[in-house]
Write a structure and sequence with these properties.
about 35% helix; four-stranded mixed sheet; alpha/beta
Length: about 180
Amino acid sequence: IFLFDGVQIVDYTGPYETFGHAWDNGPMFNIYTVAEKPGPITTAMGMVVTPTYTFANCPKTSVLVLPGGGVNPHISRPEVARWVQATARDAEVVMSVCNGAFFLAEAGLLDGQTATTYHSMIDDLQKAVPSCRVVYDERFVDNGKIITTAGISSGIDGSLHLIERLAGRGVAQRAARGME
């Protein structure tokens, strides 16, 4: 899960918690956080968090989560776009939460896709990626490798969907019940 100064707390902790509840004869996911550089980051609500890895030492990942929040200072950084592109290339699935979809847009990963984002940013995403079909009426959109989710709580929906896709409905239902 990518973290950056200004990240929205539930955008990253919702998927973190959801994946953490996915068990099938043991935990299904080795969940960790990644930031561009070492040291603590400050979330949109002032929580201070120290990511586990940096771009330089991040292990290969099968699922990349790109949360939203204060993305604007970060989406135009070439280092971030290159890392998203490289990590996405090797990942099985890439999921954005809320306006984390703009990381995908900047990395060129939404071209020709269907996507969603936070309701007040749908028009902005459409302008950013004219070849993308941006939808208003879905909590998440699954394009296969790329999953986009709408606002904060839809990141949990997208995570449960991904668990179901990877491990079956029963595991996803147990994760949902465990969180409840």
